[in-house]
Amino acid sequence: MTPEQILARRAWRQMALRDEEYHRLVEMLGRHPNWTELGMFAVLWSEHCAYKHSRLHLGQLPTEAEWVLVGPGENAGVLDVGEEMAVAFRIESHNHPIAVEPYQGAATGVGGIIRDVLAMGARPIALLDSLRFGPPEEPRCRYTFAGVVSGIAGYGNCVGVPTVGGELYFEEPYRHNPLCNVMCIGILPRSRLRRARAAGIGNSVILVGSRTGRDGIHGATFASEELDERSEERRPAVQVGDPFTEKLLIEACLELVERELVVGIQDMGAAGITSSCAETAARAGTGMRIDLDRVPLREEGMTPYEIMLSESQERMLIIAPRGKEEAVLEVCRRWGLEGAVIGEVTGDGHLKVFWRGELVADVPVKALAAGAPVYDAPASPPSDLEQRWRVPSLPEPTDCGEVLKLLLRSPSLAHKSWVWEQYDHMVQVNTVVLPGADAAVLRLKGTRKGIAASCDGNGRYTYLDPYRGAVLAVAEACRNVSCVGARPLGITNCLNFGNPEKPDVMWSFREVVRGMADACRALGVPVTGGNVSFYNESPAGPVYPTPVVGAVGLLERIEERVPSVFPGPGYRIALLGSTRAWLQGSEYLKVMYQLVAGRPPEVDLRLERAVQQVCRAAARRGLLASAHDCAEGGLAVTLAESCFSPEPVGASVKLPPELGNAAGLFGEGPSRVVVSFAPQAESRLRALCVEHGVGLLLLGWTVAEARLQIRCEDRVLVDEDVGGLMAEWQNALPSLMG
Amino acid sequence: MKFGVVVFPGSNCDADCYWVIERVLRQPVRYLWHGDGEIPDVDCVILPGGFSYGDYLRAGAIARFSPIMRAVAQFAANGGLVLGICNGFQILLEAGLLPGAMRPNDSLRFRCCPTWLKVERYDTPFTCAVPRGRTLRIPIAHFEGNYYADPQQLRQLQRERQVVFRYATRDGRVVPEANPNGSLDNIAGIVNRAGNVLGMMPHPERCAEAVLGGEDGRYVFESLIAYWQQKAGDGPR
């Protein structure tokens, strides 16, 4: 198509560019673009790549701390963990792809985030995944769920990166828009930190890894539209993963970094060659000249447009020092990978693309990588917001033991081993705390330290109150990390929303960012990067506004980690922190009354911070036998889960009168942790609590007989066999999935 | 005792085996490259877990053609000790160094979980240091671990006492409930007739340190070292 035809047919519209965006690029270019150039702009200026609707607001998030080595804007955030070691981490969504092709959509999501971490020069050591699906009673939702889990397993297991944690919810609004957010953590010696920068005029641009094919063209554009009945036709926009090649790519790239053959390195994800060339050059303030005839192709007859926009997986762009090309290619060959010098770094600030001797695209990299418009889209709260906060008056449950079983069976609360047994969670021999605990814990080989990680976000809370929901998500992720004894060092966020052009979606987004910023500031945790995923919307409506927070924490000594289950009989049980709980937005309301209603609680961030400090200080002093975040399902569920150790332990608990009701047993609230400790530790723990102004409510004892007994005054509220409760909890997902 | 850990493209437990041998057992260890046709001076070759060549066809089906595997076969024929773990076991089966074959797990799902192993023989180089009667807790992580042998092979395995590990309950009962993948006779690990080549699906390198929740895997490596030291003590090498 010629520029004239593009203009006549307004061809940019089919690439999801607005008319004014087209005019903007014409102005920046000083002429009308040709077809290839238009495609390049369309992808890099897509919402997925350019953050047009989010950029303005994301600036509120705190991003700095003295231990932050790399903040947002690179492929992954990097934190200093001492002893010359650093941790790189990031989370990313792959939502639209799993809606149409669950297995490959999830698999390539894993591959992409691993390469982001690899691009920092880090060895990927762990994955976590945060998943949301529609009701599991629906065959289609089960199909998507099973496909996504096996896609994550198929890719992660083969590539040799353990999947150590995550979270899983089933809610109606995710029926047509399931969410798949994958987080990757990597480690590196500080000296090997690399940036995605095409520095040094004359340096070589080398493409390493898979050949370039026609797969995934306009994947980023697809990710920037709503899903509809025609989305199935988008299956070709979903890429196909090859974890074997990814494994070779990891080893080859790390060897290149180790041998000082890398000036800059960048993943080729969305928008493939176009984005990796434009972004690396833009960051370095340079230009690039590339020759498409040198790109190894998977099929014949590919046009420059297709080569530039291909999202073929398992490719990395390496900027290598001039004269070292052969050394780079030799490493690639040794690992059985293809490598090709496709161009060089220039000083003119332009990305010039040659094909068959002709200049087929010539665009300023700044315009491509940073020229997209920034929108301040109108925002207004949903008209029914206050209606959502109304909770009808409800009777107290008559049989709390039955309610507890129902909650333990609820797929969102049930044991997730059906999922994580499909993941290799032990490869690399670092996994100290296995999946299922408050946070995963990995040792840092060669040091006494450990890394803790957790993913959290409750879409129901955010739907009911986006600001409070976001604060709750940050607080919970950091609390989970603190529960195992680790100090939260940073978070990565994945913000999943509907169409940002709708004022209520935009309002939720702004509220979420504001909440996240406030919570991060109060807890002293920087945000080092992440991902925004808009347009998670189908004709049935948008997903719940779903911020997922991935927190990474540091344990100075791995032996100070705290388990999440009671270790045995004879320990005191207490509720550390707040004793307040609310039924608003709770799992109880959903399970018992199919109600998603009520305004979730406000977090007292000063108290939250203090509770987390006590957890960590108590862990450091060896005072805690167990600590488990008291979250969804409330105190009763938390107590039950604490009894579910490999050797079931019983608990005998007496609640104060104000907690002897549905809200006390099943209500949810922040800043609360169920802890156990040896009786002789009590006075020191209490002193610590007093010092930080945190409550410690003694609840009872762990006992040898495996029964969970919860009493209040003279009433027995719960008296259940732990084995029976555990069976309900463990069998729920397997019996759903067959 | 000198160890060699083979690196195939797609091996992903190579570094784990290397770590355990070097840092936990404090023995000399080196990597052996799949493309090399010779085994250097080592006393034991380990074929580690992973997905050699992606295992897109059938686990181990491509790796058996690697130049190093001809050398491993020769090394084994000369009495060298060979330990195949998970994918390494699959490769040993494909290469014909051990009898039988692997099918996908009966659940048709990948499974990563702890298993308990009953040790059927203590007179092998791989088990001689295991305390008698101890059931070993060692995790598995595989999709194709459902061991199969035809009736004739199975008779031979029994006759020659080639089954070394069986999936069992914690107290050592070999029962169907303890079988994680559908393996014939709960078989988790076997040796060749000469007893110098062992294949096992569970990963001993994943439980050789207390910090990882268990140390039973150490017995396999310590057995090798004890056997080798005894042999070295018996006469000149």
Explain this structure.
The complex is a heterodimer of chains A (738) and B (237). With 738 residues, chain A is α+β, with helices and mostly antiparallel strands. Chain A has a domain at 562-738: Alpha-Beta Complex (Phosphoribosyl-aminoimidazole Synthetase, Chain A, domain 2), CATH 3.90.650. In chain A, 36% of the residues lie in helices and 24% in strands. Chain A has 26 helices and 28 strands. In chain A, the strands form five sheets. Chain A has a seven-stranded mixed β-sheet. In chain A, strand 19 and strand 20 form a beta hairpin. The model of chain A has no long low-confidence stretch (mean pLDDT 95). The mean pLDDT of chain B is 95. With 237 residues, chain B is an alpha/beta fold. Chain B is globular. Chain B has five helices and eleven strands. Chain B has a single domain (3-234), classed as 3-Layer(aba) Sandwich (Rossmann fold). Chain B has helices at 14-24, 67-77, 87-94, 151-159, 218-234; strands spanning 3-7, 29-33, 44-47, 81-85, 101-103, 111-119, 136-142, 146-148, 163-168, 187-191, 197-200. Chain B has a nine-stranded mixed β-sheet with strand order 2-1-3-4-11-10-9-6-7, sandwiched between helices. Chain B has a two-stranded antiparallel ribbon with strand order 5-8. At the A-B interface, helix 8 and helix 10 of A face helix 1 and strand 6 of B.
Concise overview:
Chain A is an alpha+beta fold and 738 residues long.
Task: Reconstruct the topology from this structure.
The complex is a heterodimer of chains A (738) and B (237).
Chain A lengths: L2 H7 L9 H11 L5 H10 L2 H4 L4 H4 L9 E3 L6 E6 L2 E9 L1 H6 L1 H17 L4 E11 L5 H21 L3 E8 L8 E11 L14 E6 L9 H4 L20 H16 L5 E4 L4 H13 L2 E5 L12 H6 L5 E6 L4 H10 L3 E9 L3 E6 L2 E7 H6 L14 H4 L11 H10 L7 H4 L10 E3 L6 E4 L6 E7 L2 H6 L1 H18 L3 E10 L6 H21 L3 E7 L3 E2 L2 E2 L3 E10 L16 E6 L9 H7 L11 H16 L5 E4 L4 H10 L6 E6 L6 H5 L5 E6 L4 H11 L3 E8 L3 E6 L2 E7 H16 L1
Parallel strand pairs in A: 4-5, 9-12, 17-18, 24-27
Antiparallel strand pairs in A: 1-2, 2-3, 3-6, 4-6, 7-10, 7-11, 8-10, 9-11, 12-13, 14-15, 15-16, 16-21, 17-21, 19-20, 22-25, 22-26, 23-25, 24-26, 27-28
Helix pairs in contact in A: 7-8, 7-10, 8-10, 10-13, 16-26, 19-20, 19-22, 22-25
Chain B lengths: L2 E5 L6 H11 L4 E5 L10 E4 L19 H11 L3 E5 L1 H8 L6 E3 L7 E9 L16 E7 L3 E3 L2 H9 L3 E6 L18 E5 L5 E4 L17 H17 L3
Parallel strand pairs in B: 1-2, 1-3, 3-4, 4-11
Antiparallel strand pairs in B: 5-8, 6-7, 6-9, 9-10, 10-11
